[in-house]
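Sequence, structure tokens reproduced for reference:
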Amino acid sequence: MRYSSANPGLAGIFLGIVLLFAPISAAASEADPLATIEPAAAHFDSEYVRAFLSNQYLLENIRLIGLAEESYAAGLYDVAFEYAQEAIRYAQLSDQYVAMQLRIRDANNAISAAADRLDWARRAGAPTRHAETYESAQSVFGEALAAREAEAWDSAIALAYRVIDILAEVVPALPAQFLVRTWAGSRDCLWNIAAMPEIYGDPTRWPILYQANRHRMPRPGDPDLIHPGMILDIPSIDGEVRYGLMAEPE
């Protein structure tokens, strides 16, 4: 449908509608659509946001709006109408482009979070203590990477979060043993060792360490005498999982 150049009313209404579709003010010229984007982009610190504001569809949208305004001002209402139609189409393409870029970012963030969780599980001893769970998480993570490669962004996101869900049952192990250091350097004694958060977090529980390790004490009846290099067993007392040697406090 075309509107006569003698009737600016409908073309003017249509041009008003196109401005609603424009993400940024239409005060741009055909020669330099960036003149409109750059002032708006200056309000954002994120290069990611600035990249959205500079996408090719939005640039063309702004250029077409400028042409539509100029044509309308010159009384070329049919021409203004055509430019306005094209401006709306490019605004919609810009929306689709931005939506896709946001989904790509979400997929990348989800996969990064899953990778971090896998690394955490590895350091927590999951390959040994939770082998089946860890292998399952690795398998699903591979599927997430494949989905991202295939640009199946929603699937990649869902699979990445599935990795995190699978690894939720992995409980980081507290140390099962402690390597005694020097009193002069570290003030290691049963009282101070029991007070460490990784041990019991309570110095008054030192007798538990003593009873579990008195057979390896230089003088079994003297809990104050421990030597550097001794390895003390740390019994689990509240159902906590303990695994491995703690050579240095974290």
Notes: The first helix runs from residue 8 to 21. DSSP finds eleven helices and three strands in the chain. The two ends are 74 Å apart (CA to CA). Residues 177-246 form one domain.
